[in-house]
Amino acid sequence: MTAYLRALAAEWTKFRTMRGWVAAVMIAAALIVGLGLLPGLQGSCGKNGPGSECVAPVGPGGEEVTDSLTFVHQALTGDGSVTVRLTGLTGELPGEPGESRSGLVPWAKAGLIVRGATTQGATYAAVMMTGAHGVRLQYDYVHDVAGKPGGVSAEAPRWLRLTRSGDTLTAAESTDGTAWSTVGSARLTGLPATVEAGLFVTSPQFTELADEGLFVGAMGGPSHATGVFDRLALAGGWHGDTWKTDVIGASVEHGGGAGGPGGAPDAPVAGGSVGAAPGRVSGAERDGDTFRLTGSGDIAPSLPGVAGVGVTITSTLVGTFAGLIVVVVLGAVFVTAEYRRGLIRTTFAAAPHRVRLLAAKATVVGGVTFVAGLIAAAVVVSLGQQVLRDNGVYLHPASTATEARVVVGTAALLAVAAVLALAFGAVLRRGVTAITTAVVVIVMPYVLAMTVLPTTAGQWLLRVSPAAAFALQQASPAYPQVANIYTPANGYFPLAPWAGLAVLAAWAAVAFAAAAVLLRKRDA
After folding, report:
1. Fold of the domain spanning 65-301
2. Residue 204 has what DSSP assignment?
3. pLDDT tens track for 372-408
4. How far is CA 310 from CA 13, 494, 522, in A?
């Protein structure tokens, strides 16, 4: 241990007395902070006077949510149930400019819902038929339980039932209205005694990934879904026999903004549609026992991305890539410079245990880059959020734990990458060769995945290459039941954050082991 500490002190002295190496660390930190604080992204939030602020509703769990739907409802006090038959679910997608085309997004939803209130962000539970994912029970925005797969039509209808017992909602489905199967149950803490319950329809943003040529892009726009219901049956503490319609949430035809409040006032369903926009409108029609609802939007967590709105704190760390290049060069040069100048023999004579010497070098370069990265990431994450808000960009808030993980993870990414580059330098011994190899192995996979590679190939590369560690900067979860384009360009990575770091660490461990073996076998 004493010998290692002596080697560590010697390497630290060597590092801090080389102005170029110290300057490289400072430049890496400055790039991370400087690029992160540049006025890049621009938005309109709060830029057009009072009322232009972007405010998203908040769900029961404290998360920001999207809550837009067409809702035909009555009040239910205490326990009760609602049953309905769904005989059709069709949709409309954006087409050529100013036109639309028939189609249904996979997560279009039509079914039964119980809500604590008609305000956005209210607690809820819903049983629904979806565009391509069968029957589901979803509740409180983030929870999703799968039922039976399949579709729905007049020839093959689906029966849905939602039953309240205290604060527990139980969803069931049937193909004939006689034999029922339970989809699942949801317990909604704090559900009021009187709730609003009934039919709903909504349809998330349509997105289409263009994955051809050199660059990956996306296109899309608002979609609509129409559900046809009949044989509506109630049991329990229902009030009155008049159904009211709410178009809850901001939608295109009502001029809503990003997460802002919108919708239409309560109105009875009386053979007309609610809404005043041309073309397909959100609203409801009733013809005797048949209800026809059209809706647009979603009931789900609010996420950044092509299909969502705003950005996360990941956007403040755009300078990490530039800082990483500097750190990789520093890691390689920290050992190859001694070979180039012929000083390696002196170093080995002073510290004959070569593996111990290599470990000391790794500790110094890894420790220095970790501290510099930690400080830079903490500064840019803290100050960069205000820069984005000042630019009118909608910024999704992150928990303290997420911010800490992103900051520490960025520092760890830089530190382990520096150690990997150091190992390449010890193996290859030539500065240009080692730097080129380190850049190709560590940096290029990220560049390729973000630009020229098809999505599938890019995500594969970000699973197996050292660039997998960029997953540490992901600040928003991906939900399978939320339509979005989950690509690295939108801040989503194929591996969990610490799994991504583990991939980089595995590369560093293998390279370090190879360097240790070669240092023992080769002459200086």
Report:
1. Jelly Rolls (2.60.120)
2. P
3. 999 999 999 999 999 998 888 899 989 999 999 999 9
4. 46, 21, 55
One-letter amino acid at 269 equals V
The whole-angstrom distance between residue 409's C-alpha and the CA centroid of its chain comes to 17
For the CA atoms of 405, 406, 407, 413, what is the dihedral angle to 10 degrees?
100
382-391: long-range contacts, CB 8 A cutoff, minimum separation 24: 383/37, 384/36, 384/37, 384/313, 384/315, 384/316, 384/317, 385/313, 385/316, 387/37, 387/39, 387/316, 388/41, 388/311, 388/315, 388/316, 389/45, 389/46, 391/39, 391/40, 391/41, 391/42, 391/43
Tokens matching residue 57: 């509703």
Q: Where are the domains of the chain?
A: 2-41+310-521, 65-301
Place of tokens 């925005």: 141
Q: How many helices (H) and strands (E) does the chain have?
A: 10, 19
pLDDT digits (tens, 9 = 90+) for 204-224: 988 776 554 444 455 568 899
Rounded-to-integer distance, Cα 252 and Cα 263, Å: 10
C-alpha span between 493 and 472 (Å, rounded): 9
Q: What is the SS3 string spanning 123-147?
A: CEEEEEEECCCCEEEEECCCEEEEC
Residue written as token pair 């380190």: 438
Structure tokens at 156: 């093959």
CA distances from 188 to 59, 72, 170 (A): 12, 21, 11
Cα separation, 385 vs 378, in Å, equals: 11
Q: How many CB atoms lie within 10 A of CB 111?
A: 26
In this prediction the pTM is 0.84
The alpha-carbon radius of gyration of the chain (Å, integer) is 29
List 246's β-bridge partners, or say none: 71
